[in-house]
Amino acid sequence: MNELFTQKYEAEEWDEDEYPWKQYRRKGYGFIYIKNPHYLVDGDDREYLIRKPTPKERREIVVNTVIACNGRTFKVHALAQRLAVSDRTVQTILRQLEKDKLIQITPKCGKAGKQKGNAYKYIGPHCEFYGSGLTLKDLYDINNGVGFRDWAWKTHGFNHDETWHNIYPLCRAKFERRMARKEYLEANNLPLVVPEDIKYIVFRYCYWKGETKKVNGRYLYSQDRTIKLKLEPLNRTETVKFCGITLNVEIAGTKDNPQVTIIDADTNKLLTVFTWFDENILIGNLDIDENTVDQVFILGDFTTK
Prior knowledge:
The structure is a single chain. The protein is α+β, with helices and mostly antiparallel strands. It is 22% helix and 30% strand. It has 6 helices and 14 strands. The protein has helices spanning 3-9, 55-69, 76-83, 87-99, 136-140, 168-187; strands spanning 32-35, 48-51, 103-109, 115-122, 165-166, 200-211, 221-222, 226-230, 236-242, 245-253, 258-264, 270-275, 281-287, 292-303. Strands 8-6-14-13 form a 4-stranded antiparallel β-sheet, with no helix packed on it. The chain has a 4-stranded antiparallel β-sheet with strand order 9-10-11-12, with no helix packed on it. A hairpin with a 5-residue loop joins strand 3 (103-109) and strand 4. Helix 3 crosses helix 4 (87-99). It is elongated.
């Protein structure tokens, strides 16, 4: 973590009610529950560790399962159970992979001519592992720092009740997951590819003008104030306004790793660059006098919808 991130977040604490592992275990829906080997050891009260691969990651795991099977049959139901989704979800992925000419599906019949299942063979570009090599083993390995989603995002979601609330739990959960994925890709000499089909950059922001002591330390709060921009088409500039501040937003990079550059429209000064693999926080302070501060806080959040 960089110094900016540490300074802002180290004083914050989790609310006991926000622990996702205290919730009733959900069946299916892509939630992977892994028995925590450190349960009730050194104060760790998480009975299960929760993960949920994104649709893009799930597709990659299915492709690498086909590669591992090397043309043999496998039970779709067993794979679906390991991914905590329905058989139909896995069947849909397999049909799309066949349509994309990445796999070949061949019906297998018994001696009586009755179909007993399908054989799946990878026919895409030659590789040992597809994409970034994600497999079922990675998904269930608690020592693997790949960066799968591992929090209850509905619990840590942004409120929409027009009241002020602490957004730290969601900020930290997302940041740690992105950093884990970045470290994994760099360690394996793989390109930085976002593991989600992100389509928007969302700016969540708040403004504060008042006594300095009220914003020191625990002030990462937000209201239901957002600006959403489509990421495509790339290589364009948008102009947005936050609380009277005008910013030029340059959207570039690639579809798999877009870069959003924030520039002060009045001074043409580069303020920051937001990417999926970074912290994406921008804070502007103007000390009005010894006791009063004028402050704007902006959080850049890449989303799929």
